[in-house]
Write a structure and sequence with these properties.
heterodimer; A: alpha/beta; Arc Repressor Mutant, subunit A; 2 domains; six-stranded parallel sheet; about 50% helix; globular; B: alpha+beta; Heat Shock Protein 90; five-stranded mixed sheet; elongated
Chain lengths: ~210, ~400
């Protein structure tokens, strides 16, 4: 554990949610700011340069993408974790592609959320089972015609994603595949990078094919 | 039409038609043999062409049969071509016959009229096909590959049709007057058409605008009504229930979770039919088990498939595994389902105490019969892994038959 407590900013338009998260995380972390909309979020984040931002996907005055676009360059050391009730793949994928290092749903338990924040602060990626499912879905199918490695998951990465989708924790994934946790984290980070950087056409096509409203 | 039962609404079928399905459709509607209707059309055609005019009128009025779900587009197309060729041969044959009977085709108006009719028929047919394509696309048939080529073919057909009609008009005029006069006549006709269009266009355009505006407003109103009805039926009801049960946290949890799941699937779920697709069926079962056993099931699906006998068996086995996990596992259950070209797989994981499969009695119906037995009878496999202290994971695998039908 690090000696200095991590500094957090909460961005969510629902005061109830912020209060709930504050109650769950306030003991372990310093919550240095809160914001309820895009403009406020950008101000607070650039002013306080926190370690981790918990970011709701849907915000008044834009969405998480707008906050990410404005902040990623301004405060490069700050890491973002998307926290949302939305199950819509295009929201999730857009937020991760915007620079968030992970995505968890608001149904996550307190200890899990604390672990996720710590993991994000350490520079790793946080994949919920659902996000892992989205990744597998998006990278599914034969990408044989494209041999750019950024557009494909390695067999190992695929295995890791499948175990996470099956509800395994990183530790359990490591045990299952006889790897160290560090290696699992490396694989997950690699997948995150691919998800963020790949211009794979299928990714856009897939997200839009899942779009309903 | 003496039958007391309502006769089937007159439509034109896609299959079993010779020209445009008018005769078949009418015969079905009237309850007569098709050949009687066809004969009637042919006989009437000799009475100053009334049959042809009637046929054309019915063609325009009768809608195309929408209940033809499995139209094989490619096959329908190629038989279309064959039929058009046959029709052309027939036209030539009739022409020759008329010539043999002494009708002077060359100087008369016969050829231009035939050409014009043929051109018009082409155009009408094309609008038919576009309608049909729209339906099959709506029905979710993979019409995407053919869409591009048919659009081009359609434009060609309409172009040829218009060309034929114009050619016939020119020929008709040229047959009666000198070429110069014919051109002059055409010019006058075009001027008149242009003038009329100029006068009428704004009015038609406004009508069209208003109509689509109205339609959009109607759709909006319907959507709003649907959302209101849904919110009233589910969310408000649940909130009322929660207030009433506020001293029972378990019950509040259960109600809130059920409602959340219902609302979530309503908002985000792929609009799948639980009776037809794998993912939707699992989703439905998971939510039912959640509310019945007071558990939390996190379902993640990758890929989807239509339910056939094997996949249905897989869903049933998964349901049984989920029930087991929800009942004995305690707490959260993770379900991951994945379908690719080779197999459909489902993993059901709980975090309960775990159990020893060998210790499960033979007669315990739950696991042995309804999970393992069901999978094996349908050509699949099931394995259960219990990690003491870490919970149990059931792995179901059902190979997919690879019969390619596209």
């Amino acid at each position: 554990m690090t000696t200095a407590r991590l500094r957090l900013v909460l961005v969510d338009d629902h005061a109830m949610v912020r209060a709930g998260v504050r109650a769950e995380l306030g003991d372990a972390f310093d919550i240095v700011g809160e914001a309820a909309d895009v403009a406020e979020a950008i101000n607070v984040i650039t002013a306080t340069a926190p370690d981790v931002v918990l970011l709701d996907v849907h915000l008044p005055g834009g969405d998480a993408r707008a906050v990410l676009d404005a902040c990623v360059a301004a405060v490069p050391a700050t890491r973002f974790l998307a926290l949302s009730v939305s199950d819509a793949p295009e929201d999730v994928v857009a937020t991760v592609r915007g620079g968030a290092r992970g995505y968890v749903t608001k149904a996550i338990s307190g200890p899990e959320l604390r672990a996720a924040v710590q993991r994000i602060a350490d520079g790793d990626a946080v994949f919920s089972p659902r996000l892992a499912g989205f990744v597998l879905d998006a990278f599914a199918g034969g990408a044989a015609e494209k041999d750019d490695e950024i557009d494909r998951l390695t067999p190992r990465e695929r295995e890791v994603m499948r175990l996470i989708a099956r509800g395994y924790t990183y530790r359990e994934v490591a045990t299952e595949l006889v790897l160290s946790i560090k290696t699992v984290e490396t694989h997950v980070s690699a997948v995150l990078r691919k998800l963020q950087l790949s211009d794979r056409r299928e990714l856009a096509k897939w997200a839009s094919s899942r779009r309903l409203i | 039409m003496t039958s007391t039962m309502a006769p089937p609404k007159a439509t034109r079928p896609v299959r079993g038609r010779v020209v445009a399905g008018v005769a078949t459709g009418l015969a079905r509607h009237l309850g007569m043999p098709v050949w009687v209707v066809r004969l009637a059309f042919v006989v009437l055609s000799f009475a100053a062409g009334i049959g042809i005019v009637l046929y054309a009128a019915f063609w325009a009025v009768l809608p195309l049969d929408a209940d033809t779900p499995d139209v094989d587009l490619a096959a329908a197309r190629s038989s279309d071509t064959a039929r058009l060729l046959a029709l052309a041969a027939l036209v030539v044959g009739v022409g020759l016959l008329l010539a043999a009977l002494g009708v002077d085709i060359a100087s008369g108006a016969v050829i231009p009229v035939i050409v014009a009719v043929f051109g018009a028929a082409l155009i009408w047919r094309q609008t038919d096909d576009e309608q049909r394509d729209a339906w099959s696309a709506a029905a979710g048939r993979a019409a995407r590959q053919t869409a591009g080529t048919t659009a081009a073919a359609g434009r060609w057909r309409i172009g040829i049709g218009i060309g034929l009609v114009l050619l016939a008009l020119v020929a008709l005029l040229a047959g009666r007057t000198s070429p110069a006069e014919a051109v002059q006549g055409m010019a006058v006709a075009l001027l008149i058409i242009g003038g009329v269009a100029l006068v009428v266009f704004p009015w038609i355009y406004r009508q069209w605008r208003e109509q689509s505006e109205q339609r959009r407003a109607l759709i909006r109103a319907e959507e709003r009504a649907e959302i209101a009805a849904h919110v009233h039926d589910s969310v408000l009801q649940t909130l009322t229930l929660i207030q009433r049960a506020s001293n029972d946290p378990q019950e509040v949890m259960r109600l809130a979770r059920t409602e959340e799941r219902a609302l979530r699937s309503w908002l985000y779920a792929p609009t799948g039919d639980p009776d037809r697709t794998f993912a939707a069926a699992l989703e439905r079962d998971a939510s039912q088990i959640e509310s019945a056993y007071d558990a939390t099931i996190d379902l993640v699906t990758v890929g989807d498939s239509v339910l056939d006998a094997r996949i249905t068996a897989l869903v049933a086995a998964s349901r049984e595994a989920m029930v087991n996990a929800a009942r004995h596992g305690g707490g959260a259950v993770s379900v991951y389902a994945e379908i690719d070209e080779e197999a459909a797989e489902v993993f059901v994981r709980d975090r309960g105490a775990g159990f020893d499969l060998a210790a499960v009695a033979e007669d315990r119906h739950g696991v042995r019969e309804s999970v393992i037995g069901r999978m094996e009878r349908n050509g699949g496999t099931a394995s259960i892994r219990s990690m003491t202290g870490l919970g149990t994971e059931v792995h179901l695998r059902m190979p997919i038959r690879t019969d390619v039908t596209t």
